[in-house]
Amino acid sequence: MSIKVELQTQSQPGPGTQVAPSWPMLRTLAGIAILSGLLVVLVYQATKPIITENERILTEQAVFEVLPGAVSKVDFVLTEQGLAPAGEGAVGMAVFVGFGADAELRGVAFPGAARGYQDVIQFLFGYDPACECIVGSKVLRSTETPGLGDKIDTDPVFLENFVALDASLNPAGTALANPIVLVAHGTKTAPWQIDGISGATISGKAMARAANDAAERFVPSIRRDLAKLAAAAP
Predict the structure, then answer these.
(1) What is the model's pLDDT at position 2?
(2) 189 in Cβ contact with 222 (< 8 Å)
(3) Which top-rank group of organisms is this from (predicted)?
(4) Residue 177 resides in a domain
(5) Which of 200, 206, 208 is nearest to 154 (CA)?
(6) Residue 229 three-state SS
(7) Within a domain: residue 196?
(8) Is 217 helix (H, G, I), strand (E, B) or coil?
């Protein structure tokens, strides 16, 4: 009798013993995980067209913000061969050519991006071939700290840097004559420098890198294909 009681006691799990989940429980958990994943995919597929359309509208509005005097635009893409009209099978990065009411070329808007404090910040810059300078900037997407990092898109004094930021090319027309850089507040001495802003140093440096890299990428092609762009007036 004592042996029987001992065997029964050993078969019972102790207070701290973890009991392995049964097959029905595992099956239920797996089903929940699969269903959750499916719902995430369905929500993503359903909202993706809406997000894409909202981004298109935001970018289109930004084009006219960064190109003063522009009232219409024609879309181009930057390919390995140069700038080509969008929608003709050309694949590349989007470029937006702005025209005034008189159908004269007002400038070209192109994208830029660089990592800030939180994440990658996406910009749109406006370039005027007449002055060979960046004449506008707009943050398209950012997760920077409100009230600090977002000053690069809201502070009017800082945005004065982008009224006529020098983006002229070297004599060969292959790269910027001078790199666009951020300098400490109050120490700006050259037209290709960006006067820093207090409380947003990291974001300001990101904006300078984005402007410099974008100008290096797009401006040489813009200069080469300027006649083609001007002739595309709607």
Answers:
(1) 45
(2) no
(3) Bacteria
(4) yes
(5) 200
(6) helix
(7) yes
(8) helix
Q: 120-172, pLDDT tens digit by residue?
A: 999 999 999 999 999 999 999 887 677 666 789 989 999 999 999 999 999 99
**Full residue range of the structural domain in which residue 222 is found:** 64-230
pLDDT in tens, 80-121: 889 999 986 778 899 999 999 999 999 999 999 999 887 899
Length of the chain: 234
Q: Which residue's structure tokens are 């894409």?
A: 52
Tokens standing for 149?
Answer: 């990092």
Question: In angstroms, rounded to a whole number, what is the distance separating the alpha carbons of residues 92 and 88?
Answer: 11
Here the tokens at position 18 are 């973890």
The whole-number average pLDDT for the span 173-188 is 96
Q: Residue 178 in contact with residue 79, Cβ under 8 Å?
A: no
Distance CA 210, CA 140 (A): 12
In this structure, is residue 109 part of a structural domain? yes
What predicted TM-score, i.e. pTM, was given to this entire model? 0.76
| Structural domain count, the chain | 1
Does 41 reside within a domain?
no
